[in-house]
Amino acid sequence: MTGLPPLHRTEVDGIPVLWSPCPGPLAGGIAFRVGELAATGPTQEEIGRSAREYERRYANQPELDGWVCHRAADELYGRQFQQPAEQVAERSALTPGKVAAVFERARATTILALPGYCPPPDGFTLLGPDDGAPVQGRVHKFAVPFSRRRLVAAYEGLTLSDRDGRATVRFDGCVAVLAWGDGARVLLGHDGGSILFTAEAFRGGGEVAALVERRVPGDRWVPMDELEPSPFAK
After folding, report:
1. Where is mean pLDDT largest: 25-34, 82-91, 136-145?
2. Does the predicted TM-score (pTM) go above 0.70?
3. 107, 142, 171: which is the final residue of a domain?
4. What does each C-alpha distance from 214 to 165, 188, 218 come to in angstroms?
5. How many domains does the chain have?
């Protein structure tokens, strides 16, 4: 594809990273390519090449590298676990039309994360956090004096504001609450917005913690102590 800015290679903590000094045009190019795939799909030759490459990578290999990790991910996402041979057969059975249909459905929910100075590509609009409206309720000041951080708690949700901006998560749109034993909580909204708080960090924070427990159903709570340390761990 022509007209895209050059990609540069660097490393972050030993991991190779490709980046562009012009993320806006690059995002436009990606969106254009996705549109092409949604319209016609890849060629049958490209599909076959993908299946052969996958088969080559795992040929004569009794177990996938990171087998436990792959299997755990499949279990978490509710996917049926497949052996490499089954994956190759599934890829080989794809057609351009089937792939195009998947990309067409994906376009309806595609989100591009860009720097604030980059305008959205054609066909995309700016997505405001949780429709952009903060909740109106009781204001809880940060426990540290002279801080600008404020947490507003209302029946419908929470709004956290500080010098870097504002985030709102409404309880009916809260997809998960990550919970640690030390009281740390991360509320995740359906639009990707998040709020991190602990009761000790805000005046009257215990009331906020109790409100979250009442308003967010139990099946959305995720115990985190065995998965990763608390954000407030020293």
Report:
1. 136-145
2. no
3. 107
4. 27, 16, 9
5. 2
